[in-house]
Design goal:
By secondary structure, this protein is an all-alpha fold. It contains 5 helices and no strands. It starts with 8 loop residues before the first helix and ends with a helix.
């Protein structure tokens, strides 16, 4: 029986960076008072950060797309849109590094 090995330092770093980016996005949405669609966006962000999605990162881009659409249609503040781009950049890097 084979045992799973602990992730290397680099894997932990990129995944921590991804988690941090989602956290920054969540904070920006939660703090934006002028964004009426914020609650919907928060729900999708929380789902994207859930254990089930983190265990299968290939599902995460779909959640990011939903968040982007909600924020675009709801005219979210520029700061929120900047954090969406930041999450997208890191997520793209993670998926290129670890395609499985």
């Amino acid at each position: 029986m084979a045992f799973d090995e602990e992730m290397t330092c680099c894997e932990k770093t990129i995944l921590s960076e991804l988690q941090g980016a989602w956290g920054l996005l969540r904070d920006a949405v939660a703090e934006s008072q002028d964004f009426p669609e914020g609650r919907r966006a928060l729900f999708q962000i929380d789902e994207a950060m859930s254990w089930e999605i983190v265990r299968d990162l290939r599902r995460m881009p779909a959640f990011l797309l939903v968040v982007r659409n909600i924020c675009t249609m709801g005219e979210a503040p520029q700061e929120v849109m900047d954090y969406i781009r930041y999450v997208d950049e890191i997520l793209t890097e993670v998926l290129e590094e670890y395609p499985q």
